[in-house]
Design brief:
The structure holds 2 protein chains of 2 kinds. By secondary structure, chain A is an alpha/beta fold. Chain A is 54% helix and 13% strand. Chain A has helices spanning 10-22, 34-44, 62-73, 88-95, 113-124, 132-141, 152-163, 167-174, 178-191, 199-214, and strands at 2-6, 26-31, 48-52, 79-83, 102-106, 128-130. Chain A has a 6-stranded parallel sheet, sandwiched between helices. In chain A, helix 8 (167-174) crosses helix 9 (178-191). Chain B is α+β, with helices and mostly antiparallel strands. Chain B is 71% helix and 8% strand. Chain B contains 12 helices and 5 strands. Chain B has helices spanning 5-29, 32-45, 48-78, 95-105, 107-145, 150-155, 158-195, 200-254, 260-287, 290-307, 324-343, 380-389, and strands at 312-317, 350-357, 360-367, 394-398, 405-412. In chain B, strands 1-2-3-5-4 form a 5-stranded mixed sheet, covered by helices on one side. In chain B, helix 1 crosses helix 5 (107-145). The mean pLDDT of chain B is 84. Classes of the chains: A alpha/beta, B alpha+beta. At the A-B interface, helix 1, helix 4, helix 5 and helix 6 of A face helix 8, helix 9, helix 10 and strand 1 of B. Chain A: The modification 4-aspartylphosphate is found at residue 52.
Chain lengths: 216, 415
Protein backbone atom coordinates (compact mmCIF):
# COMPACT_ATOMS: atom_id res chain seq x y z
CA UNK A 1 0.00 0.00 0.00
CA UNK A 2 1.30 3.39 -0.95
CA UNK A 3 1.31 6.18 1.59
CA UNK A 4 2.13 9.88 1.56
CA UNK A 5 3.43 11.62 4.65
CA UNK A 6 3.14 15.35 5.39
CA UNK A 7 4.99 16.29 8.54
CA UNK A 8 7.24 19.32 8.93
CA UNK A 9 9.41 17.89 11.69
CA UNK A 10 12.10 15.91 9.93
CA UNK A 11 12.88 13.82 12.98
CA UNK A 12 9.33 12.69 13.32
CA UNK A 13 8.98 12.15 9.58
CA UNK A 14 11.83 9.66 9.65
CA UNK A 15 10.13 7.86 12.54
CA UNK A 16 6.79 7.82 10.75
CA UNK A 17 8.34 6.37 7.62
CA UNK A 18 9.89 3.56 9.64
CA UNK A 19 6.63 2.87 11.44
CA UNK A 20 4.63 2.80 8.22
CA UNK A 21 7.15 0.58 6.49
CA UNK A 22 7.00 -1.75 9.42
CA UNK A 23 3.23 -1.83 8.95
CA UNK A 24 3.65 -2.89 5.34
CA UNK A 25 3.17 0.48 3.66
CA UNK A 26 5.41 1.93 0.98
CA UNK A 27 6.07 5.60 1.52
CA UNK A 28 5.69 7.09 -1.94
CA UNK A 29 6.35 10.67 -0.93
CA UNK A 30 7.16 12.73 2.11
CA UNK A 31 6.67 16.44 2.39
CA UNK A 32 6.76 19.22 4.93
CA UNK A 33 3.87 21.44 3.93
CA UNK A 34 0.31 21.43 2.65
CA UNK A 35 1.13 22.41 -0.92
CA UNK A 36 3.68 19.66 -1.28
CA UNK A 37 1.13 17.28 0.16
CA UNK A 38 -1.52 18.13 -2.41
CA UNK A 39 1.01 17.78 -5.20
CA UNK A 40 2.16 14.41 -3.85
CA UNK A 41 -1.39 13.11 -3.55
CA UNK A 42 -2.17 14.29 -7.08
CA UNK A 43 0.90 12.51 -8.38
CA UNK A 44 0.82 9.23 -6.45
CA UNK A 45 -2.89 8.84 -5.64
CA UNK A 46 -1.86 7.02 -2.42
CA UNK A 47 -3.91 4.59 -0.40
CA UNK A 48 -3.15 6.58 2.71
CA UNK A 49 -2.26 10.20 3.51
CA UNK A 50 -0.74 10.76 6.93
CA UNK A 51 -0.95 14.47 7.74
CA UNK A 52 0.28 16.67 10.58
CA UNK A 53 -2.36 19.23 11.59
CA UNK A 54 0.07 22.06 12.15
CA UNK A 55 2.33 22.79 9.20
CA UNK A 56 4.00 25.70 7.47
CA UNK A 57 3.46 28.43 6.57
CA UNK A 58 0.91 29.42 9.20
CA UNK A 59 1.44 26.63 11.73
CA UNK A 60 -2.23 26.56 12.59
CA UNK A 61 -4.63 24.08 11.01
CA UNK A 62 -3.18 23.77 7.50
CA UNK A 63 -3.25 20.00 7.81
CA UNK A 64 -6.98 19.89 8.52
CA UNK A 65 -7.69 22.11 5.54
CA UNK A 66 -5.40 20.10 3.30
CA UNK A 67 -7.09 16.90 4.42
CA UNK A 68 -10.52 18.31 3.56
CA UNK A 69 -9.20 19.46 0.22
CA UNK A 70 -7.90 15.97 -0.49
CA UNK A 71 -11.26 14.45 0.46
CA UNK A 72 -13.00 16.91 -1.82
CA UNK A 73 -10.75 16.45 -4.83
CA UNK A 74 -10.07 12.74 -4.56
CA UNK A 75 -13.01 11.31 -2.64
CA UNK A 76 -12.28 8.10 -0.87
CA UNK A 77 -8.60 8.78 -0.26
CA UNK A 78 -8.00 7.54 3.27
CA UNK A 79 -6.67 10.34 5.44
CA UNK A 80 -5.15 10.21 8.92
CA UNK A 81 -4.55 13.44 10.78
CA UNK A 82 -1.92 13.60 13.47
CA UNK A 83 -2.07 16.31 16.07
CA UNK A 84 -0.25 17.27 19.21
CA UNK A 85 -3.61 17.87 20.85
CA UNK A 86 -6.89 16.53 19.75
CA UNK A 87 -9.63 19.07 19.45
CA UNK A 88 -13.00 17.61 18.64
CA UNK A 89 -13.75 20.61 16.44
CA UNK A 90 -10.99 19.61 14.04
CA UNK A 91 -12.28 16.06 14.10
CA UNK A 92 -15.82 17.26 13.50
CA UNK A 93 -14.66 19.34 10.53
CA UNK A 94 -12.99 16.36 9.01
CA UNK A 95 -15.73 13.87 9.79
CA UNK A 96 -18.69 16.06 8.92
CA UNK A 97 -18.87 14.74 5.37
CA UNK A 98 -17.99 11.12 5.78
CA UNK A 99 -16.61 8.92 8.49
CA UNK A 100 -15.11 6.20 6.36
CA UNK A 101 -11.45 6.26 5.59
CA UNK A 102 -10.79 8.97 8.16
CA UNK A 103 -8.55 9.01 11.18
CA UNK A 104 -7.66 11.61 13.73
CA UNK A 105 -4.99 10.61 16.19
CA UNK A 106 -2.77 12.13 18.79
CA UNK A 107 0.86 12.23 17.70
CA UNK A 108 2.05 10.41 20.73
CA UNK A 109 -0.02 7.38 19.67
CA UNK A 110 2.56 6.78 16.97
CA UNK A 111 4.84 5.66 19.75
CA UNK A 112 2.62 2.63 20.40
CA UNK A 113 3.72 1.23 17.11
CA UNK A 114 1.50 -1.85 16.88
CA UNK A 115 -1.69 0.02 17.87
CA UNK A 116 -0.85 2.87 15.55
CA UNK A 117 -0.23 0.58 12.61
CA UNK A 118 -3.51 -1.18 13.29
CA UNK A 119 -5.38 2.13 13.41
CA UNK A 120 -3.79 3.35 10.20
CA UNK A 121 -4.63 0.07 8.49
CA UNK A 122 -8.24 0.39 9.56
CA UNK A 123 -8.40 3.78 7.92
CA UNK A 124 -6.67 2.57 4.78
CA UNK A 125 -9.29 -0.18 4.59
CA UNK A 126 -12.06 2.42 4.70
CA UNK A 127 -12.65 2.39 8.42
CA UNK A 128 -12.40 5.04 11.10
CA UNK A 129 -9.73 5.72 13.69
CA UNK A 130 -10.54 8.32 16.26
CA UNK A 131 -8.17 8.96 19.09
CA UNK A 132 -9.52 7.64 22.38
CA UNK A 133 -9.06 11.15 23.70
CA UNK A 134 -11.40 12.62 21.08
CA UNK A 135 -13.87 9.92 21.86
CA UNK A 136 -13.54 10.62 25.55
CA UNK A 137 -14.13 14.31 24.88
CA UNK A 138 -17.23 13.51 22.91
CA UNK A 139 -18.56 11.15 25.53
CA UNK A 140 -17.92 13.24 28.59
CA UNK A 141 -19.80 16.38 28.12
CA UNK A 142 -23.24 15.56 26.77
CA UNK A 143 -25.92 15.37 29.35
CA UNK A 144 -29.11 16.30 27.59
CA UNK A 145 -29.00 13.78 24.78
CA UNK A 146 -29.64 10.05 24.42
CA UNK A 147 -25.97 9.32 25.12
CA UNK A 148 -26.77 10.09 28.75
CA UNK A 149 -28.99 7.02 28.83
CA UNK A 150 -26.11 4.68 28.11
CA UNK A 151 -24.53 2.65 30.88
CA UNK A 152 -20.79 3.18 31.44
CA UNK A 153 -20.10 -0.15 29.76
CA UNK A 154 -22.17 0.83 26.74
CA UNK A 155 -20.36 4.14 26.58
CA UNK A 156 -17.10 2.25 26.56
CA UNK A 157 -18.31 0.09 23.71
CA UNK A 158 -19.59 3.11 21.76
CA UNK A 159 -16.25 4.81 22.35
CA UNK A 160 -14.35 1.88 20.88
CA UNK A 161 -16.82 1.76 18.03
CA UNK A 162 -16.14 5.40 17.30
CA UNK A 163 -12.45 4.67 17.35
CA UNK A 164 -13.25 2.41 14.46
CA UNK A 165 -12.88 -1.03 15.94
CA UNK A 166 -14.73 -4.12 14.90
CA UNK A 167 -16.75 -6.25 17.29
CA UNK A 168 -13.81 -8.59 17.61
CA UNK A 169 -11.50 -5.64 18.34
CA UNK A 170 -13.88 -4.30 20.98
CA UNK A 171 -14.23 -7.71 22.61
CA UNK A 172 -10.46 -7.98 22.75
CA UNK A 173 -10.01 -4.50 24.20
CA UNK A 174 -12.66 -5.00 26.89
CA UNK A 175 -11.75 -8.63 27.55
CA UNK A 176 -15.29 -9.88 27.00
CA UNK A 177 -16.84 -12.28 24.54
CA UNK A 178 -17.89 -11.13 21.09
CA UNK A 179 -21.49 -12.00 21.80
CA UNK A 180 -21.48 -9.75 24.84
CA UNK A 181 -20.22 -6.95 22.61
CA UNK A 182 -22.99 -7.61 20.11
CA UNK A 183 -25.54 -7.40 22.94
CA UNK A 184 -24.15 -4.07 24.12
CA UNK A 185 -24.19 -2.72 20.61
CA UNK A 186 -27.81 -3.70 20.16
CA UNK A 187 -28.65 -1.93 23.40
CA UNK A 188 -26.82 1.15 22.16
CA UNK A 189 -28.75 1.14 18.88
CA UNK A 190 -31.99 0.80 20.80
CA UNK A 191 -31.18 3.62 23.20
CA UNK A 192 -30.07 5.90 20.38
CA UNK A 193 -33.28 5.13 18.47
CA UNK A 194 -31.45 3.73 15.48
CA UNK A 195 -33.86 1.48 13.56
CA UNK A 196 -32.76 -1.87 12.20
CA UNK A 197 -31.97 -1.22 8.57
CA UNK A 198 -28.43 -2.28 8.00
CA UNK A 199 -26.16 -3.25 10.86
CA UNK A 200 -22.99 -1.67 9.44
CA UNK A 201 -24.73 1.51 8.55
CA UNK A 202 -26.00 1.88 12.08
CA UNK A 203 -22.51 1.80 13.46
CA UNK A 204 -21.62 4.88 11.45
CA UNK A 205 -24.89 6.52 12.48
CA UNK A 206 -24.09 5.92 16.12
CA UNK A 207 -20.70 7.54 15.68
CA UNK A 208 -22.25 10.42 13.80
CA UNK A 209 -24.79 10.84 16.58
CA UNK A 210 -21.78 11.35 18.75
CA UNK A 211 -20.28 14.00 16.55
CA UNK A 212 -23.62 15.68 16.01
CA UNK A 213 -23.99 15.93 19.74
CA UNK A 214 -20.64 17.61 19.95
CA UNK A 215 -21.98 20.70 18.25
CA UNK A 216 -25.13 21.08 20.31
CA UNK B 1 42.45 80.53 45.22
CA UNK B 2 39.63 78.05 44.89
CA UNK B 3 36.04 79.07 44.94
CA UNK B 4 33.93 76.87 47.23
CA UNK B 5 31.61 74.64 45.25
CA UNK B 6 28.51 75.96 47.02
CA UNK B 7 29.37 79.52 46.20
CA UNK B 8 30.12 78.70 42.61
CA UNK B 9 26.81 76.94 42.26
CA UNK B 10 24.96 79.89 43.77
CA UNK B 11 26.72 82.30 41.41
CA UNK B 12 25.96 80.14 38.38
CA UNK B 13 22.36 79.76 39.38
CA UNK B 14 21.98 83.50 39.96
CA UNK B 15 23.51 84.08 36.55
CA UNK B 16 21.12 81.67 34.95
CA UNK B 17 18.05 83.09 36.69
CA UNK B 18 18.85 86.70 35.95
CA UNK B 19 19.61 85.75 32.34
CA UNK B 20 16.23 84.05 32.19
CA UNK B 21 14.52 87.13 33.60
CA UNK B 22 16.37 89.41 31.19
CA UNK B 23 15.30 87.25 28.26
CA UNK B 24 11.70 87.61 29.36
CA UNK B 25 11.50 91.40 29.17
CA UNK B 26 11.12 91.77 25.42
CA UNK B 27 8.59 89.02 24.72
CA UNK B 28 6.60 90.11 27.75
CA UNK B 29 6.43 93.64 26.43
CA UNK B 30 5.75 92.57 22.85
CA UNK B 31 2.03 93.25 22.96
CA UNK B 32 2.33 96.57 24.76
CA UNK B 33 2.81 98.57 21.55
CA UNK B 34 -0.31 96.92 20.16
CA UNK B 35 -2.64 98.04 22.86
CA UNK B 36 -0.78 101.33 23.37
CA UNK B 37 -1.32 102.04 19.68
CA UNK B 38 -4.93 100.97 19.93
CA UNK B 39 -5.52 103.21 22.93
CA UNK B 40 -3.77 106.17 21.35
CA UNK B 41 -5.52 105.82 17.99
CA UNK B 42 -8.90 105.39 19.63
CA UNK B 43 -8.34 108.49 21.68
CA UNK B 44 -7.28 110.48 18.64
CA UNK B 45 -9.84 109.30 16.07
CA UNK B 46 -12.60 107.85 18.20
CA UNK B 47 -12.84 104.97 15.71
CA UNK B 48 -12.71 102.21 18.34
CA UNK B 49 -14.26 99.57 16.09
CA UNK B 50 -11.30 99.61 13.72
CA UNK B 51 -8.61 99.80 16.36
CA UNK B 52 -10.15 97.12 18.55
CA UNK B 53 -10.57 94.70 15.64
CA UNK B 54 -7.06 95.45 14.33
CA UNK B 55 -5.42 94.99 17.69
CA UNK B 56 -7.48 91.89 18.40
CA UNK B 57 -6.26 90.40 15.11
CA UNK B 58 -2.67 91.27 15.98
CA UNK B 59 -3.04 89.76 19.43
CA UNK B 60 -4.57 86.59 18.02
CA UNK B 61 -1.79 86.27 15.46
CA UNK B 62 0.92 87.10 17.98
CA UNK B 63 -0.24 84.77 20.74
CA UNK B 64 0.94 81.44 19.26
CA UNK B 65 4.29 82.95 18.32
CA UNK B 66 4.81 84.46 21.74
CA UNK B 67 3.68 81.25 23.41
CA UNK B 68 6.27 79.34 21.41
CA UNK B 69 8.94 81.89 22.31
CA UNK B 70 8.06 81.66 25.98
CA UNK B 71 8.06 77.86 25.90
CA UNK B 72 11.52 77.91 24.32
CA UNK B 73 12.71 80.39 26.94
CA UNK B 74 11.46 78.27 29.83
CA UNK B 75 12.84 75.09 28.38
CA UNK B 76 16.23 76.37 27.27
CA UNK B 77 17.05 78.77 30.09
CA UNK B 78 15.68 77.13 33.24
CA UNK B 79 14.78 73.66 32.05
CA UNK B 80 11.08 73.95 32.75
CA UNK B 81 9.00 72.16 30.15
CA UNK B 82 5.70 73.91 29.63
CA UNK B 83 3.85 71.21 27.70
CA UNK B 84 1.61 72.12 24.84
CA UNK B 85 -1.53 70.19 24.12
CA UNK B 86 -0.96 66.96 22.24
CA UNK B 87 -2.49 67.55 18.83
CA UNK B 88 -5.64 65.54 18.31
CA UNK B 89 -7.05 64.31 15.04
CA UNK B 90 -8.83 67.15 13.22
CA UNK B 91 -12.57 66.88 13.33
CA UNK B 92 -15.22 68.16 11.04
CA UNK B 93 -16.17 71.71 11.99
CA UNK B 94 -19.24 71.93 14.18
CA UNK B 95 -20.21 74.18 17.04
CA UNK B 96 -19.64 71.29 19.39
CA UNK B 97 -16.16 70.55 18.06
CA UNK B 98 -15.31 74.26 18.32
CA UNK B 99 -16.53 74.29 21.89
CA UNK B 100 -14.42 71.23 22.61
CA UNK B 101 -11.41 72.84 21.02
CA UNK B 102 -11.91 76.01 23.06
CA UNK B 103 -12.37 74.03 26.25
CA UNK B 104 -9.24 72.04 25.52
CA UNK B 105 -6.92 74.82 24.43
CA UNK B 106 -8.43 77.70 26.46
CA UNK B 107 -6.93 80.43 24.25
CA UNK B 108 -8.10 83.27 26.50
CA UNK B 109 -5.66 82.15 29.19
CA UNK B 110 -2.74 82.52 26.81
CA UNK B 111 -4.01 85.85 25.51
CA UNK B 112 -4.44 87.06 29.07
CA UNK B 113 -0.91 85.94 29.88
CA UNK B 114 0.68 87.83 26.99
CA UNK B 115 -1.59 90.85 27.00
CA UNK B 116 -2.09 91.66 30.67
CA UNK B 117 0.28 89.62 32.78
CA UNK B 118 3.22 90.03 30.41
CA UNK B 119 3.80 93.74 31.05
CA UNK B 120 3.54 93.23 34.82
CA UNK B 121 6.04 90.42 34.66
CA UNK B 122 8.29 92.58 32.50
CA UNK B 123 8.16 95.27 35.20
CA UNK B 124 9.07 92.74 37.85
CA UNK B 125 11.92 91.42 35.71
CA UNK B 126 13.18 94.93 35.08
CA UNK B 127 13.03 95.64 38.79
CA UNK B 128 15.14 92.59 39.60
CA UNK B 129 17.58 93.49 36.83
CA UNK B 130 17.78 97.04 38.12
CA UNK B 131 18.50 95.81 41.62
CA UNK B 132 21.16 93.50 40.21
CA UNK B 133 22.73 96.39 38.30
CA UNK B 134 22.56 98.63 41.36
CA UNK B 135 24.20 96.12 43.63
CA UNK B 136 26.97 95.48 41.12
CA UNK B 137 27.49 99.22 40.84
CA UNK B 138 27.54 99.53 44.65
CA UNK B 139 30.04 96.74 45.07
CA UNK B 140 32.52 98.17 42.63
CA UNK B 141 31.91 101.86 43.51
CA UNK B 142 34.81 101.93 45.93
CA UNK B 143 37.16 100.43 43.39
CA UNK B 144 36.12 102.94 40.74
CA UNK B 145 36.77 105.79 43.16
CA UNK B 146 40.45 105.04 42.82
CA UNK B 147 40.13 106.05 39.20
CA UNK B 148 39.26 109.59 40.28
CA UNK B 149 42.08 112.15 40.48
CA UNK B 150 43.58 112.11 43.95
CA UNK B 151 42.61 115.72 44.71
CA UNK B 152 38.96 115.22 44.03
CA UNK B 153 38.84 111.99 45.93
CA UNK B 154 40.45 113.49 49.01
CA UNK B 155 38.35 116.62 48.91
CA UNK B 156 35.14 114.64 48.94
CA UNK B 157 34.20 113.54 52.42
CA UNK B 158 31.81 110.93 51.08
CA UNK B 159 34.86 109.08 49.94
CA UNK B 160 35.24 107.82 53.46
CA UNK B 161 31.59 107.42 54.53
CA UNK B 162 29.33 107.06 51.49
CA UNK B 163 31.42 104.78 49.34
CA UNK B 164 31.92 102.07 51.99
CA UNK B 165 28.18 102.31 52.70
CA UNK B 166 27.44 101.74 48.95
CA UNK B 167 29.80 98.82 48.93
CA UNK B 168 28.21 97.26 51.98
CA UNK B 169 24.69 97.79 50.60
CA UNK B 170 25.79 96.33 47.27
CA UNK B 171 27.23 93.29 48.98
CA UNK B 172 24.06 92.82 51.00
CA UNK B 173 21.91 93.08 47.90
CA UNK B 174 24.28 90.79 46.05
CA UNK B 175 23.66 88.18 48.71
CA UNK B 176 19.91 88.58 48.38
CA UNK B 177 19.97 88.62 44.57
CA UNK B 178 20.18 84.85 43.86
CA UNK B 179 17.16 84.14 46.04
CA UNK B 180 15.13 87.00 44.66
CA UNK B 181 15.90 86.04 41.06
CA UNK B 182 15.15 82.46 41.83
CA UNK B 183 11.85 83.27 43.52
CA UNK B 184 10.75 85.43 40.61
CA UNK B 185 11.79 82.82 38.05
CA UNK B 186 9.90 80.15 39.95
CA UNK B 187 6.80 82.28 40.23
CA UNK B 188 6.96 82.91 36.49
CA UNK B 189 7.33 79.23 35.75
CA UNK B 190 4.29 78.49 37.91
CA UNK B 191 2.22 81.08 36.12
CA UNK B 192 3.36 79.83 32.74
CA UNK B 193 2.55 76.22 33.61
CA UNK B 194 -0.89 77.28 34.75
CA UNK B 195 -1.70 79.61 31.90
CA UNK B 196 0.29 78.32 28.91
CA UNK B 197 0.26 74.62 29.75
CA UNK B 198 -2.64 72.21 29.81
CA UNK B 199 -4.89 72.14 32.84
CA UNK B 200 -4.52 69.53 35.53
CA UNK B 201 -7.53 67.66 34.24
CA UNK B 202 -6.04 67.58 30.76
CA UNK B 203 -2.67 66.45 32.04
CA UNK B 204 -4.36 63.66 33.96
CA UNK B 205 -6.40 62.74 30.93
CA UNK B 206 -3.27 62.53 28.80
CA UNK B 207 -1.52 60.51 31.44
CA UNK B 208 -4.46 58.13 31.66
CA UNK B 209 -4.47 57.75 27.89
CA UNK B 210 -0.75 57.04 27.89
CA UNK B 211 -1.10 54.52 30.67
CA UNK B 212 -3.98 52.80 28.92
CA UNK B 213 -1.89 52.47 25.78
CA UNK B 214 1.17 51.23 27.60
CA UNK B 215 -0.90 48.74 29.58
CA UNK B 216 -2.49 47.39 26.43
CA UNK B 217 0.96 47.12 24.86
CA UNK B 218 2.24 45.26 27.88
CA UNK B 219 -0.65 42.81 27.89
CA UNK B 220 -0.22 42.20 24.20
CA UNK B 221 3.49 41.68 24.69
CA UNK B 222 2.84 39.12 27.40
CA UNK B 223 0.29 37.32 25.24
CA UNK B 224 2.66 37.32 22.29
CA UNK B 225 5.33 35.90 24.54
CA UNK B 226 3.04 33.11 25.68
CA UNK B 227 2.23 32.30 22.10
CA UNK B 228 5.91 32.31 21.21
CA UNK B 229 6.77 29.94 24.05
CA UNK B 230 3.88 27.72 23.06
CA UNK B 231 5.10 27.63 19.47
CA UNK B 232 8.70 26.96 20.47
CA UNK B 233 7.69 24.08 22.69
CA UNK B 234 5.27 22.73 20.14
CA UNK B 235 7.60 22.86 17.20
CA UNK B 236 10.74 21.93 19.10
CA UNK B 237 10.67 20.05 22.35
CA UNK B 238 7.37 18.25 21.83
CA UNK B 239 8.36 17.01 18.39
CA UNK B 240 11.65 15.72 19.70
CA UNK B 241 9.98 13.89 22.53
CA UNK B 242 7.44 12.37 20.18
CA UNK B 243 10.21 11.31 17.87
CA UNK B 244 12.08 9.78 20.80
CA UNK B 245 8.97 7.88 21.88
CA UNK B 246 8.39 6.69 18.32
CA UNK B 247 11.93 5.41 18.02
CA UNK B 248 11.69 3.62 21.36
CA UNK B 249 8.36 2.15 20.23
CA UNK B 250 10.00 1.03 17.02
CA UNK B 251 12.83 -0.56 18.95
CA UNK B 252 10.34 -2.57 20.96
CA UNK B 253 8.29 -3.56 17.93
CA UNK B 254 11.17 -4.27 15.59
CA UNK B 255 13.38 -6.26 17.90
CA UNK B 256 11.35 -8.94 19.63
CA UNK B 257 14.59 -10.92 20.00
CA UNK B 258 16.14 -8.54 22.57
CA UNK B 259 16.97 -9.96 25.99
CA UNK B 260 14.13 -9.38 28.41
CA UNK B 261 16.04 -6.98 30.68
CA UNK B 262 16.95 -4.77 27.72
CA UNK B 263 13.34 -4.86 26.56
CA UNK B 264 12.22 -3.84 30.01
CA UNK B 265 14.58 -0.86 30.09
CA UNK B 266 13.41 0.28 26.67
CA UNK B 267 9.79 -0.23 27.62
CA UNK B 268 10.27 1.89 30.72
CA UNK B 269 11.97 4.63 28.73
CA UNK B 270 9.12 4.43 26.23
CA UNK B 271 6.56 4.86 28.98
CA UNK B 272 8.44 7.77 30.52
CA UNK B 273 8.73 9.52 27.18
CA UNK B 274 4.98 9.18 26.63
CA UNK B 275 4.25 10.52 30.09
CA UNK B 276 6.58 13.45 29.48
CA UNK B 277 4.71 14.20 26.26
CA UNK B 278 1.37 14.13 28.06
CA UNK B 279 2.66 16.46 30.78
CA UNK B 280 4.16 18.82 28.26
CA UNK B 281 0.89 18.84 26.33
CA UNK B 282 -1.04 19.92 29.41
CA UNK B 283 1.54 22.58 30.17
CA UNK B 284 1.54 23.98 26.67
CA UNK B 285 -2.22 23.99 26.43
CA UNK B 286 -2.29 25.94 29.68
CA UNK B 287 0.00 28.55 28.13
CA UNK B 288 -2.11 29.24 25.11
CA UNK B 289 -4.37 26.73 23.45
CA UNK B 290 -3.60 26.53 19.75
CA UNK B 291 -7.21 25.97 18.86
CA UNK B 292 -8.12 29.29 20.47
CA UNK B 293 -5.96 31.06 17.94
CA UNK B 294 -7.08 28.93 14.99
CA UNK B 295 -10.79 28.57 15.57
CA UNK B 296 -11.65 31.11 18.22
CA UNK B 297 -13.38 31.00 21.54
CA UNK B 298 -16.25 28.73 20.57
CA UNK B 299 -14.05 25.87 19.41
CA UNK B 300 -11.55 26.28 22.23
CA UNK B 301 -14.33 26.25 24.80
CA UNK B 302 -15.92 23.15 23.39
CA UNK B 303 -12.58 21.38 23.70
CA UNK B 304 -12.17 22.72 27.20
CA UNK B 305 -15.67 21.70 28.22
CA UNK B 306 -15.04 18.28 26.75
CA UNK B 307 -11.94 17.76 28.81
CA UNK B 308 -13.74 18.75 31.99
CA UNK B 309 -14.79 15.59 33.79
CA UNK B 310 -18.24 17.02 34.54
CA UNK B 311 -21.29 17.51 32.37
CA UNK B 312 -20.84 21.00 30.98
CA UNK B 313 -23.64 22.81 29.25
CA UNK B 314 -22.00 25.26 26.91
CA UNK B 315 -23.78 28.06 25.14
CA UNK B 316 -21.65 30.38 23.06
CA UNK B 317 -23.32 33.15 21.13
CA UNK B 318 -20.80 35.29 19.29
CA UNK B 319 -21.47 37.37 16.23
CA UNK B 320 -17.84 37.34 15.20
CA UNK B 321 -14.43 36.78 16.66
CA UNK B 322 -13.41 39.29 19.29
CA UNK B 323 -9.94 40.70 19.89
CA UNK B 324 -7.32 38.03 20.74
CA UNK B 325 -6.65 39.39 24.21
CA UNK B 326 -10.37 39.36 25.02
CA UNK B 327 -10.64 35.79 23.75
CA UNK B 328 -7.66 34.84 25.81
CA UNK B 329 -8.99 36.35 29.05
CA UNK B 330 -12.47 34.88 28.52
CA UNK B 331 -10.90 31.48 27.91
CA UNK B 332 -8.83 31.59 31.06
CA UNK B 333 -11.75 32.79 33.18
CA UNK B 334 -13.81 29.84 32.02
CA UNK B 335 -10.92 27.41 32.25
CA UNK B 336 -10.18 28.43 35.84
CA UNK B 337 -13.86 28.40 36.77
CA UNK B 338 -14.25 24.89 35.38
CA UNK B 339 -11.12 23.73 37.17
CA UNK B 340 -12.47 25.14 40.43
CA UNK B 341 -15.84 23.51 39.92
CA UNK B 342 -14.12 20.20 39.33
CA UNK B 343 -11.48 20.34 42.03
CA UNK B 344 -13.03 22.26 44.90
CA UNK B 345 -16.74 22.73 44.47
CA UNK B 346 -17.77 19.09 44.22
CA UNK B 347 -20.17 20.14 41.51
CA UNK B 348 -22.43 17.81 39.55
CA UNK B 349 -22.91 19.99 36.53
CA UNK B 350 -21.70 23.30 35.16
CA UNK B 351 -23.27 25.78 32.82
CA UNK B 352 -21.16 28.14 30.72
CA UNK B 353 -22.75 31.00 28.84
CA UNK B 354 -20.78 33.34 26.58
CA UNK B 355 -22.68 36.11 24.89
CA UNK B 356 -21.75 39.22 23.04
CA UNK B 357 -24.09 42.07 23.87
CA UNK B 358 -23.19 45.14 21.88
CA UNK B 359 -19.59 45.90 22.76
CA UNK B 360 -19.44 43.72 25.84
CA UNK B 361 -18.55 40.05 26.01
CA UNK B 362 -20.47 38.47 28.88
CA UNK B 363 -19.13 35.30 30.40
CA UNK B 364 -21.04 33.39 33.05
CA UNK B 365 -20.06 30.12 34.65
CA UNK B 366 -22.48 28.55 37.12
CA UNK B 367 -21.96 25.32 39.02
CA UNK B 368 -24.17 23.51 41.49
CA UNK B 369 -21.34 22.77 43.90
CA UNK B 370 -20.68 23.58 47.54
CA UNK B 371 -20.10 27.30 47.06
CA UNK B 372 -18.03 29.29 49.51
CA UNK B 373 -15.47 30.39 46.95
CA UNK B 374 -13.86 33.65 47.97
CA UNK B 375 -12.50 35.95 45.30
CA UNK B 376 -10.50 37.87 47.90
CA UNK B 377 -8.71 34.89 49.41
CA UNK B 378 -5.68 34.96 47.13
CA UNK B 379 -6.81 32.02 45.05
CA UNK B 380 -6.90 31.66 41.31
CA UNK B 381 -9.97 33.87 41.39
CA UNK B 382 -7.85 36.85 42.42
CA UNK B 383 -5.65 36.29 39.41
CA UNK B 384 -8.72 36.11 37.20
CA UNK B 385 -10.08 39.35 38.65
CA UNK B 386 -6.74 40.95 37.79
CA UNK B 387 -6.73 39.63 34.26
CA UNK B 388 -10.28 40.83 33.72
CA UNK B 389 -9.32 44.15 35.31
CA UNK B 390 -6.45 44.49 32.87
CA UNK B 391 -9.04 44.85 30.11
CA UNK B 392 -11.19 47.25 32.16
CA UNK B 393 -13.69 44.46 32.57
CA UNK B 394 -15.95 43.69 35.50
CA UNK B 395 -15.51 40.48 37.47
CA UNK B 396 -17.97 39.15 39.97
CA UNK B 397 -18.16 36.01 42.06
CA UNK B 398 -21.31 34.95 43.85
CA UNK B 399 -20.70 31.89 45.96
CA UNK B 400 -22.81 31.53 49.11
CA UNK B 401 -21.88 28.59 51.30
CA UNK B 402 -23.95 25.67 50.07
CA UNK B 403 -23.81 26.93 46.50
CA UNK B 404 -24.45 27.57 43.76
CA UNK B 405 -21.37 29.45 42.54
CA UNK B 406 -21.71 31.93 39.73
CA UNK B 407 -18.72 33.65 38.19
CA UNK B 408 -19.39 36.46 35.77
CA UNK B 409 -17.03 38.56 33.72
CA UNK B 410 -17.92 41.40 31.41
CA UNK B 411 -15.19 42.25 28.95
CA UNK B 412 -15.30 45.28 26.71
CA UNK B 413 -14.65 44.08 23.18
CA UNK B 414 -15.16 47.08 20.93
CA UNK B 415 -12.92 46.74 17.90
Amino acid sequence: MRAVIAEDSVLLRVGLIKVLEMGGFQVAAETGDAEGLLAAVAEHRPELALIDVRMPPGFTDEGVRAAMEIRRRWPGTPVVLLSQYVEERYAADLLSANTSGVGYLLKQRVADVADFVAAVRRVADGGTALDPQVVAQLLLRRDSDPLARLTPRERGVLGLMAEGRSNAGIAQALVVSESAVAKHINNIFAKLDLPVVDADHRRVLAVLRFLGASRA
Amino acid sequence: MTIPAGLRRTVLRAQRDTGFLAAGVLPHLALVPVWAWAAATTARTGNWLLTVSMSAALVLLGTPVLTAVQRARYRVLIGVDVPGLTPTAPERWTWASTARWLAATRPWRKIGYHLLLGPLLALLELLVLAVAAACLAGVIAYAWSWALPTGIRQDWFGYLTQLPAYTAAGLLLLCALPWTARAVARAEARLALGLLGPSRAQRLQERVDQLAVSRTDLIEAVDAERRRIERDLHDGTQQRLVSLAVNLGLAIAARPDLPSDAREVIARAHLEAKEAIAELNDLVRGLHPAVLEDRGLDAALSGLAARTPLPVRLRVNLEERVAPNVESVAYFVISEALANATKHANAMRVEVIVRQVGEVLRVRVTDDGLGGADAAAGTGLTGLAKRVGSLDGAFHVSSPVGGPTTITAELPCAR
